Amino acid sequence: MKGSLIGIGVGPGDPELLTIKAVRAIEAADIIIAPCSRQQEESIALNIVTTYIKEATELRKMIFPMISCKETLQQHWQRNAEEIALELEKGRTVVFLTLGDPMLYSTYIYINRLVRSYGHEVRTVPGITSFGAIASHLNLPLAEGDKPLLIFPMTEDTDLLEAAIAKGAEAVVMKVSQAPLRLAEIIEENQLQNNYVMVSKCGQNQESISYSLLDLKENKPPYLSTVILKSKPIEGRE
Amino acid sequence: MKGSLIGIGVGPGDPELLTIKAVRAIEAADIIIAPCSRQQEESIALNIVTTYIKEATELRKMIFPMISCKETLQQHWQRNAEEIALELEKGRTVVFLTLGDPMLYSTYIYINRLVRSYGHEVRTVPGITSFGAIASHLNLPLAEGDKPLLIFPMTEDTDLLEAAIAKGAEAVVMKVSQAPLRLAEIIEENQLQNNYVMVSKCGQNQESISYSLLDLKENKPPYLSTVILKSKPIEGRE
Predict the structure, then answer these.
(1) pLDDT tens for residues B211-233?
(2) Is the pLDDT of residue A211 over 80?
(3) Could you tell me how far CA B83 lies from the centroid of its own chain?
(4) Which residue in A137, A142, A169 is closest to B160 by CB distance?
(5) Pairing between β-strand A170-174 and β-strand A149-153 as defined by DSSP bridges
(6) Distance (Å, whole) CA A32 – CA A77
(7) From the list A7, A132, A164, which residue is nearest B160 (CB)?
C-alpha cells in the first residue's frame, strides 16, 4: 500500500496553537519534513512541534532556498517532491510542516500540487495564521459586522490596499519587510498612525510588538512581521 | 481573586480542529457559555466541543438574537456581558465558545470589549476559520506568492470585491446567503464560472460542496456558506 503526504499548519509559534488533528498526524508520522532555506539553519516550524514528536520518527530537513530565479526554484521544488514521492512509494506516512496555515503563502502549496500530480494521496490540516494569533493575543478584532478584510502581502503595487483603506475596510499586511517604507508612506498619507500595530515573530521567543512608525521607517522590520491596519484608532495603544 | 473570561475559537465543525490551547481551556473551565440565537436552538459550537467537557463544568446557553435593531441588540449584549461579569466577580473561569475564529465576524468581539471595559481579565484563543478549513479540505490554495486575498462578507456594496477581481486577487466570500443573486451576477460578469466553489456547513454532518451556479441562483444557500473565488480556474472541479 502506498503512503500518504500530510501537510500540516503548525501555527505561528506557540506549540499550544497546534490543532488536535495536527498533533495526531505528527504522532503517527514515519517521517517529518521541516522546510528551511539553508541546511545550517534551524527550522522554526520544527522547533514548534518538537514536544509532540515520537522517538522513532525520522526527521528530515528539506531545503527551499530563498532565491528569486523561478526556474531554479522550480527545480528545487520538483527534486523535493520527488524525494517525498519515493518515501510514499515505500508506504510511509510523510508529514510536511508549515508555519501558519499551509494553504496561505506557503511553499507547501507547490509540493502539494506536485505530489498529487504524481498520483499520491495528499491531505492537509489547516493551521492558525499569524494574523489570527496576533488578533487574539492583543484582543484586537480583525473585522466586525460586514466589513471586508484584505490580506495583503506587501509589494510596490499597493492599489488594492489603498482601495481597501478608501472603502473603510480592515487590512492585514504580511511580508512587511518587502517594502516597509512604502507601507509607512501609506499609513502617513491616510493618517492611520493611530490605527495600526506591527507584530514580529508572533508567539516565538523574540516576539516584538510595535506601535511606532520608526520601526517601519528606520529599523528594518524582521522577516516574519505582520501589520494589522484598522479602520479606526486602536484603543489601549502604548 | 477575580476570575477570567477566555474566548475560544472552536473552528468550523470538526472537533479535531480545536487547538491544544482551546481544549485545555475547556477542560479547566468552571462555566462554558454557548451562544445561540434562540433558547430552543442547538448550539453548533457546543456540539463541536462536547467530547472535551468535564462532568463538573456548568454549561450555559446565552441568547444572542438574530435581529437587525442595533439598540435591542446592544441591550442583549450588555445584559449578557453583565451576566458573565457576575461570575468573574465570584472568581470563576468562564469560557465563551465561538464558531471559527473569535476575532473575525463574531458576537464574542462585543462581549470581549464590554467585559474588558468592566475591568476584568479577558484572554482569547484563536480558531481555525471556515475558509482555512475548506482550503485544506479541498487542497485548494487560498493565496500564493504575493497575491492579495480579500475576505468579503457578502453585501449589496460589492465595489471592493470587484476591485479585487479586477486586480487578479483571490477572494473568500462569507455570509453568502445575504446576497446570493448579486454574487452569481458578479461571477457571471467576470466569467469566473470555473473559478469558484461554495462550501456550506464545512466539517459538520450536513456539509455540502457545490460548483454549480444554480445553488447560488435558484436554491437558497444555507446560513453558513462560504465561496472561494480564485483568479484561475479550479482544477479537478466536478
Answers:
(1) 989 899 888 888 889 999 999 99
(2) yes
(3) 23
(4) A169
(5) parallel
(6) 17
(7) A164
Q: Which three cell numbers stand for residue A196?
A: 495600526
Instruction: Write out chain A in H/E/C secondary structure.
Output: CCCEEEEEECECCCHHHCEHHHHHHHHHCCEEEEEECCCCCCCHHHHHHHHHCCCCCEEEEEECCCCCCHHHHHHHHHHHHHHHHHHHHCCCCEEEEECECCCECCCHHHHHHHHHHCCCEEEEECCCCHHHHHHHHHCCCCECCCCCEEEEECCCCCHHHHHHHHCCCEEEEECHHHCHHHHHHHHHHCCCCCCEEEEECCCCCCCEEECCCHHHHCCCCCCCEEEEECCCCCCCCC
Q: Looking at chain A, which residue has its C-alpha nearest residue B153? A: A146
Q: Please name every residue paired with A61 in a beta bridge, in sequence order, or none if there are none.
A: A34
Sheet of strand A121-125: strand arrangement:
A58-63, A31-36, A94-98, A4-9, A121-125
Give residues with Cβ within 8 angstroms of A161, minimum separation 6. Answer: A150, A152, A171, A173, A186, B148
Residue window 121-180, chain B: list those with CB within 8 Å of chain A: 122, 124-129, 132-133, 135-137, 139-153, 155, 159-161, 163-164, 167, 169, 175, 178
What cell was used for B162?
A: 470587484
Q: Within 10 Å of residue A235's Cβ, how many Cβ atoms?
A: 12
Alpha-carbon gap: A55 to the closest alpha carbon of chain B (Å) = 21
CA distance B146 to A183: 15
Q: How confident is the model at residue B238 (pLDDT cuts 50, 70, 90)?
A: low
- Which tens digits make up the pLDDT trace of B98-112? 999 999 999 999 999
What CATH number should be reported for the domain whose range is A4-125? Answer: 3.40.1010.10
Retrieve residue B18's grid coordinates.
Answer: 480545536
Residue positions counted in chain A: 238
**Beta-bridge mates of residue A94:** A5, A31
Percent of chain B with pLDDT over 90: 79
What residue segments make up the domains of chain A, in order of their start?
4-125, 130-229
Written as one letter, the residue type at B221 is P
Report how far residue A6's alpha carbon sits from residue A94's, in angstroms, rounded to the nearest whole number.
Answer: 6
Domain B130-229 sits in CATH 3.30.950.10: yes
- Cα A147 to chain centroid, rounded: 24
